[in-house]
Write a structure and sequence with these properties.
Length: 344
């Protein structure tokens, strides 16, 4: 069954920051590497927020999310791994020799000695507004993500939600929109404290605990008014709007991965401090994993990636070095440095 397939040392499933950095670090360890991403572009969950500013990556000054994705992808391609886009892996079968045969939803197959799962929260879907007929406005002025800020300039914007993204969008739009109103069904906001405080002391109108209950349109094409209802008293208000942004979180679906015998909770796979799953030869990194000292930041994801890859390397060759040499002393970078005109 595997005779016609090329055998890889490691196959990374997932092309977000964890998967991309794993591909880069795998090159530092001279491993034959393949990365498979279900979507048709790399970036993972970061693609949902291309205009968000990222502040918490060490050594990187504030950077647009889409720019960070580009830099991560450029770094991931440093050692020319095989990158496969548009394939969702649904099947995993261990072969008699201990290798794995991976199968995609469309029938493609991949052969590998080890697997690193960097699937984040699985296939993510936006939680939609649960109002009958709301979907008709998605082509006009009902939004579930903010790709660009400029289209909202001078408009009366209503944001429904209370998480990081809702708070961030409110703060970003406050200076360019005619007005910004945030409606949240709880008094407490889940965003970062500093950002929530900034929102509450700005011109943004914050209405809690309210929820969007009706959408009104005279032409059946664009939302012109929104009815919000107090979640405790039922009291209603009608607000005039030019645009509605909904951020009710994401729904996650890990699909057939749950059938692979992994020790999984609702949101994460449980792994060791070395990023080993309970299935020998399968490792994991990034938001997908849970362990004692796990740090759910992009910076923490990079450490996960290196630890998982090191464990995969030692699984294949127990006599290998425990970790890669740093780039300043790693022979894999000598040619790269010469290409940059750096003499050693």
């Amino acid at each position: 069954m595997t005779e016609s397939l090329e055998l890889y040392d490691v196959t990374i499933i997932g092309g977000g920051p964890a998967g991309m950095y794993t591909a880069f670090y795998s090159g530092m360890r001279d491993m034959k590497t393949k990365l498979i991403e279900a979507k048709h572009e790399l970036g993972g969950r970061m693609r949902i927020y291309p205009e968000k500013m990222i502040w918490d990556v060490g050594g990187v000054t504030p950077i647009l999310c889409e720019k960070l994705i580009d830099q991560l992808e450029q770094q991931a391609r440093t050692f020319e791994p095989t990158i496969v886009l548009g394939q969702q892996i649904t099947g995993l079968d261990r072969q008699d020799d201990g290798t794995f045969l991976l199968t995609s939803a469309t029938g493609e197959q991949h052969w590998t000695r080890t697997v690193i799962l960097a699937v984040g929260y699985g296939i993510l879907k936006m939680a939609k507004l649960e109002i009958e007929g709301a979907d008709r406005y998605e082509v006009t002025n009902l939004h579930y993500t903010v790709q660009e800020l400029e289209p909202f300039r001078g408009k009366h914007v209503l944001i429904s939600g209370g998480g990081n993204s809702a708070v961030d969008w409110a703060n970003e739009l406050e200076s360019i929109a005619a007005s910004v109103t945030v409606v949240h069904r709880r008094d407490h906001f889940g965003g970062h404290e500093k950002n929530v405080a900034r929102m509450k002391t700005s011109s943004v109108q914050v209405l809690t605990p309210y929820a969007v209950s009706q959408l009104h349109s005279s032409n059946g094409e664009t939302i012109e008014q929104v009815t919000i209802s107090h979640v405790e008293t039922g009291e209603t208000q009608i607000l005039n709007v030019d645009a509605v942004i909904v951020n009710h979180g994401l729904k996650s679906d890990f699909g057939p991965i749950r059938d692979w015998g992994l020790d999984m909770g609702e949101w994460h796979a449980r792994v060791s401090e070395k990023l080993e799953t309970n299935v020998p030869g399968i490792f994991a990194a990034g938001d997908f994993v849970e362990y004692g000292s796990k740090l759910y930041l992009i910076a923490g994801t990079f450490t996960d990636a290196a630890l998982a890859l090191n464990s995969a390397k030692l699984y294949i060759d127990p006599s290998a070095d425990k970790a890669a040499y740093v780039s300043s002393h790693n022979s894999r970078f000598k040619e790269k440095n010469r290409e940059l005109g750096v003499l050693e």
